[in-house]
Design goal:
This protein is α+β, with helices and mostly antiparallel strands and 137 residues long. The chain has 3 domains: 54 residues, Classic Zinc Finger (Double Stranded RNA Binding Domain, 2-Layer Sandwich), CATH 3.30.160; 30 residues; 37 residues. The chain contains 5 helices and 8 strands, in the order ββαββααββαββα. The strands form 4 sheets. A two-stranded antiparallel sheet has the order 1-2. A two-stranded antiparallel ribbon has the order 3-4. The relative contact order is 0.06. Pfam families: zf-C2H2 (PF00096). It is found in: Nucleus.
Length: 137
């Protein structure tokens, strides 16, 4: 006997847009996009949210900066970072060699981002010099 295709398909549907899901909670949160209902409010500011997890994420932003920075500590210099990603990007500073060397001056950088910013500085300096020359003539 053939299996009914609709048995596995989501049974709950948003009356506003046709979104389908089999999980009641997902539909409830989804409907709030249409109704504008945001029952979860921040007690520190005017922000409100459709789902509790959104409020929880938001509340982390209100934490003391010092408290957030202590979560991810560099083992070489004890500097704290708010995320593991920030710590990951900090780590090359402790490497022996600085891999990025400027061809226009004697500076070198451990991180590509610092080197890129430095190159922009040289480029802007050249552009300013060119503009000054144009204005003199």
């Amino acid at each position: 006997m053939p299996k009914d295709a609709s048995a596995d398909s989501p049974r709950l549907m948003c009356e506003f847009c046709g979104y389908r899901t089999s999980i009641h909670w997902n539909l409830k949160i989804h409907r709030r996009r249409h109704t504008g209902e945001k029952p979860f409010s921040c007690d520190r500011c005017q922000a409100s949210f459709a789902a509790r997890y959104q409020l929880t994420t938001h509340l982390e932003r209100h934490q003391d900066i010092g408290e957030r920075r202590r979560r991810h500590i560099c083992t070489d210099c004890n500097l704290g970072f708010s995320s593991s990603r920030a710590l990951y990007h900090h780590r090359p500073l402790h490497e022996d060699g600085k891999r990025y060397k400027c061809s226009q001056c004697d500076k070198s950088f451990a991180q590509a981002a610092g080197y890129a910013q430095h190159k922009r500085w040289h480029r802007q300096k050249r552009q300013r010099a060119t503009e000054i020359k144009k204005n003199v003539v």
